[in-house]
Design a protein that fits this description.
The protein is an all-alpha fold. 72% of the residues lie in helices and 0% in strands. It is built from five helices and no strands. The longest helix is centred in the first third of the chain and has 24 residues. The radius of gyration is 15 Å and the shape is globular. The model has no long low-confidence stretch (mean pLDDT 90). Belongs to the SdhE FAD assembly factor family.
């Protein structure tokens, strides 16, 4: 019975990660897609449930330009989104951009 519960929990998490990854790649604003999509692919499996909750709240925002501005810190981030997840996302974005520039993509 415990084995079935563990499998069900694993499947629920796998589906949740899949939904979030899909949404991260399809924001409608390419710059946001190019940060959020790779972030989910590389970091998503290791995120805690609390981080996934924060990310889902972030992805629920309608204004992709504003969301991207929060990530790159050109606009103030609302307090409810200034989370450890946002810090991790910004760190990833800086490293991701630096790697792309080093490879000649920038």
């Amino acid at each position: 019975m415990a084995d079935n519960d563990a499998r069900a929990e694993t499947e629920i998490r796998r589906q949740r990660l899949g939904r979030i990854t899909f949404r991260a790649w399809r924001r409608g604003f390419r710059e946001a897609d190019l940060v959020l999509g790779p972030f989910m692919e590389r970091e998503g499996p290791g995120l805690s449930d609390a981080d996934l909750d924060s990310l889902e709240a972030l992805l629920a925002e309608d204004n992709d330009h504003e969301l991207y501005a929060w990530i790159i810190e050109t606009n103030p981030t609302p307090a409810e989104h200034e989370t450890p997840l946002m810090t991790r996302l910004r760190t990833f974005m800086r490293a991701h951009v630096a790697a792309a520039v080093a490879e000649g993509a920038g």
